[in-house]
Amino acid sequence: MRGVLILVSCLLSWAVTAQNRKLVWADEFNYTGMPDTARWSYDTGGHGWGNNEKQYYTDARPANVSVGNGLLTIHVNKEEYKGNKYTSARVLSKYKGDWKYGRIEVRAKLPKGRGIWPAIWMLPTDWKYGGWPESGEIDIMEYVGYLPDSLFSTVHTGTYNHAIGTHKPGGIAKPEVTDGFHVYVMEWTPDKIRMGVDDNLYYEFVNEKKTFNEWPFDQRFHLLLNVAVGGNWGGKEGIDDSIFPQKMEVDYVRVYQ
Fold it and tell me: What domains sit in the chain, N to C, each tagged with a CATH number?
């Protein structure tokens, strides 16, 4: 019973916090064409992105990103492109949406299949404390296709990161998660970072009040939306080429402070 009460308390505080926020930035994708250039730009290239990923991220290419019917869609294709065998898109809000603290909500439908690796995440805009991981990374949602009923969240810092095996990940079982839209949420205050899906809070990272090596999250960060193919994690059990094309659809992005 005590565990149930704690869970109920967490869910209630999650909802109350949302009500007390003011909307400061959003994209409802209620237009047609390409992502709004006032809000979004692109990371491009096919160099593996530090994870041995196999896709090439293209620059405002309609075959890989589009907006229509109220959705932003990232299209993932199996095709030869500039030396890579797959194409995708990585859109980001850098210098157009940068925040220090707040609540981010992204309603999205994920792609599926072995070898797919979508993510909703954040990187530092100014890299004040140095390169990765010293300046931090916030992974709001990651999904890998070979684990079809699971979602993951984590943060990376100089002290806590996967490169040295000290990261502090969290996850939740979410059967049939790719069958529909879900709201992926991150709440960030000076004291903690919390992540969840829909009404379920499942991850918390607390500020230990030590140095930037443990908590570099006192600087502004921006949002990234992307779908990788393969990679050290996403491709751990190979890539099933029969799954393509795939897509991640985003209904809205809302930022509250």
Answer: 23-256 (2.60.120.200)
